[in-house]
Amino acid sequence: MAPPSPTDDQHASDGTVDFGYERVKAEEKAARVAEVFRSVAPRYDLMNDLMSLGTHRLMKRLTVTLAGVRPGHRVLDLAGGTGDVAALLAERVGPTGQVILADINEAMLIVGRDRMIDRGHLNIHPALADGEALPFGDDSFDAATIAFGLRNVTRKDQALRELHRVLKPGAPLLVLEFSKPRGALLEKAYDAFSSLWPTVGGALAGDREAYRYLNESIRMHPPQEALAEMMREAGFGAVRFHNLIGGIAAIHQGRKQ
User: Fold this and answer.
1) In whole angstroms, what is the distance from residue 104 CA to residue 177 CA?
2) Residue 7 domain-assigned?
3) Which of 170, 175, 182, 257 can bridge 252 by disulfide, Cβ–Cβ 3.0-4.6 Å?
């Protein structure tokens, strides 16, 4: 069955939003997403390596490079999960800087916190935070990143407005996310490859349904141009995007005006 057309997650007239290919009440989505990530947290990084053939690590490095953070900067890594991006940012801001590793899911945050402690990243501070209502003051950060997390937010437009609020004027936002492949052949090949994820997830992580949702959530995420427009509507300027692997993923960047 063909998936529904991607939406920007605005409320439908019946008050529902996307949860993969399902429509659920807006207040239900956060709890169901939370359960997905509680389930996959212990094997999340292994599955990321398998699903992306290891390329997610290169994409995250490129995202951090584009963020242009410097020693002494205070940076927010939203939906930071197990800490891959936060660790890269921590190396760049140095001991005089600070990285806030924020995630709404406690299980993912615990994995990330423990990993950062084990690696000796003393300038990374975990924060349990809802991206739609960030517990930080206005103009608090020199940069912000969100990698493979925006598609799981119930109200993406609200999360983008909150990211805009907490950034300092002129500070960059980097959004790394799965996107729309360019070209019919690549799209078909990617669809065939990603259709295997639920089976592999069931075998290695013990939760086929969680990976079915993650697969479907990619299909429902706004394509490149639509996400760029959402960032502009949230107040960001100089918005542009860089397609990766033919558009299978993309890095969007903008600056707080």
Assistant:
1) 18
2) no
3) 175
